[in-house]
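Private note to self, pasted from the team thread so I don't lose it. Backbone tokens:
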């Protein structure tokens, strides 16, 4: 973590100060910006390792900043949104943001999302992915759940592969549809709902109470390692 530089972008001075204090206490180097233009200029001058970005800025939207940063940077981006701003949140995720937290947020939640994003940025994807009791062999196109072989259709495998390669990351419906079915299907959410339901029946101990494949209401899905109950 030492030397990991985080660019924090928010136009509310008290939020900027609180984030700077908390991030520095957690061991991060912090640079702050209060506008979209300042954020892009500082990112270009000193490319950050991660970005925390408010969606509402005085001279533009956080979504536009995401889109510009993604032209040249792969640094994880965590956006800050307000309750009820689901369309803009989904737009930011589609523009390249990795995750979001909703204001008012707990600093522990934000730090956890930031750590997860930084982990994904440096963790190489090998031919075998292990997530909890799930073992996905990309070369053999095979899945085992708790050591037991589970049969998947080709589409189910591609869906699980995409989710597993982005473990912990919130993936929007259009992102998943484009990756698995192709660009012509990015509005066909019913395909996704059907296959998510089928996949849950195969990977979840209790499909009615999923622990691996989680729904983020109004946004998309996230594949996670289940928390110990």
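Design output:
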């Amino acid at each position: 973590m030492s030397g990991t530089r985080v660019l924090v972008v928010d136009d509310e001075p008290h939020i900027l100060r609180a984030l700077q204090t908390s991030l520095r206490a957690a061991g991060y180097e912090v640079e702050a910006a209060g506008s979209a233009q300042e954020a892009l200029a500082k990112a270009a001058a000193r490319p950050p390792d991660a970005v925390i970005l408010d969606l509402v800025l005085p001279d533009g939207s956080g979504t536009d900043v995401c889109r510009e940063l993604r032209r040249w940077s792969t640094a994880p981006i965590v956006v800050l949104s307000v309750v009820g701003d689901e369309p803009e949140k989904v737009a930011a995720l589609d523009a390249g943001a990795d995750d979001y937290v909703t204001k008012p947020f707990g600093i522990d939640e934000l730090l956890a999302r930031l750590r997860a994003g930084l982990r994904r940025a440096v963790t190489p994807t090998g031919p075998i992915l292990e997530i909890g009791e799930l073992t996905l062999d990309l070369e053999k196109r095979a899945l085992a759940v708790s050591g037991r072989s589970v049969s998947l259709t080709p589409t189910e495998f591609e869906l699980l592969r995409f989710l597993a390669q982005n473990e912990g990351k919130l993936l929007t419906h259009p992102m998943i549809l484009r990756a698995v079915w192709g660009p012509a299907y990015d509005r066909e959410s019913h395909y996704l709902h059907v296959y998510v339901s089928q996949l849950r029946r195969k990977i979840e101990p209790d499909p009615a109470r999923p622990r691996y494949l989680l729904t983020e209401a109004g946004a998309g899905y996230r594949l996670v390692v289940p928390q110990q109950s």
